[in-house]
C-alpha cells in the first residue's frame, strides 16, 4: 500500500519510523510519503491560509496550495465524473465527517493508495473537497465527537489502525481476530505472571488448563464488560 500525507507539520509524522509501521516500511509493505503543503506555495511567506468569506473567526486554508499538492501526489487521477474503485482514496479528517470505525479501517486496508489531507485553522476551502470528489473517492472522517486543532493526530490514529490490518504488518494474524471490535464485543481482561501480585490473584480458571472453561469465562467477561461500558454495542 502507498500512503501520502499532506500537512503543514511534516515533522509530526517522524514517529512513524519508530512504530510498528517502521518495519512495514523497511520491508516494502507500506510506502509512505509525507509532503509539506508550504512547498506548494509561491509567495515569499509561503502562505496557506486567508480570512473566511462571509466573515467570522479564524482563518481558512487556501485552495491553490492544496490543489498543487494533491495533483502532485495523485498523478493517477481520472477525469471529472469518472471516480471509480481503482484510484486513490482521499481522506480529510474533519469534525464534520463520518465517524471512524474498525469497519472503515478494514475497507481502507484493502486499498492500494491512501492520501490524507491534514487541515489546520478552521479547515480547508470546501472547493478542494468538491473538486477531488468529482475525480476520485473522497471521505471526510471524524475520529470522534471532540475537537482537535488539526487533522494530524487523527491521521496518525487512522494510519495505525489501518496499517496493522495489512497482512504481514502484525506478527500474529490470530491477534487481529481475537481483539476488541472484530467480534462486536469489548476485549476480555488479560493476565500474566506472577499468579499472585500484591493482594490480587489471577482468576483460577485461567490456571486450570481447561480450554473450554477458559473460552466460556472469557466470553462471559467480554459480554459483562460490554453490557456495563458499551451497551450500545449489544444487539437489541
Ligand atoms: C481539522 C477545527 C473545525 C476546529 C482544522 C482541521 N474528530 C476530529 N475532531 N477534530 C478534528 C477531527 C479535526 C480535523 C481536521 C480540525 C479538526 N481543525 C480544527 C475545525 C471546527 C473546529
Q: For the record, give the distance between the C-alpha atoms at the N and C termini, rounded to a whole number.
A: 38 Å
Round the mean pLDDT to the nearest integer and report it. Answer: 94
Structural class: alpha/beta
Tell me, briefly, the overall form. elongated
Order of strands across the biggest sheet?
A: 2-1-6-5-7
Order of helices and strands: EHEEEHEHEHEHHEEH
Strand content: 15-25%
Low-confidence spans = none
The gyration radius over C-alpha positions equals: 22 Å
Protein described:
With 236 residues, this protein is of the alpha/beta class. 30% of the residues lie in helices and 18% in strands. The protein is built from seven helices and nine strands. The strands form three sheets. Strands 2-1-6-5-7 form a five-stranded parallel β-sheet. A two-stranded antiparallel ribbon has the order 3-4. Helix 3 links the parallel strand 5 and strand 6. The chain is elongated, with a radius of gyration of 22 Å. Bound molecules: 3-[1-(phenylmethyl)indol-6-yl]-1~{H}-pyrazol-5-amine.
Topology:
Blueprint: E1 2-7, H1 20-26, E2 31-36, E3 49-50, E4 60-61, H2 63-73, E5 89-99, H3 102-109, E6 113-117, H4 126-133, E7 137-142, H5 152-163, H6 174-178, E8 196-197, E9 200-201, H7 211-229
Parallel strand pairs: 1-2, 1-6, 5-6, 5-7
Antiparallel strand pairs: 3-4, 8-9
The structure holds 3-[1-(phenylmethyl)indol-6-yl]-1~{H}-pyrazol-5-amine.
Residues 93-95, 119-120, 122-123, 142-144, 146-151, 154 line the site of 3-[1-(phenylmethyl)indol-6-yl]-1~{H}-pyrazol-5-amine (JDQ).
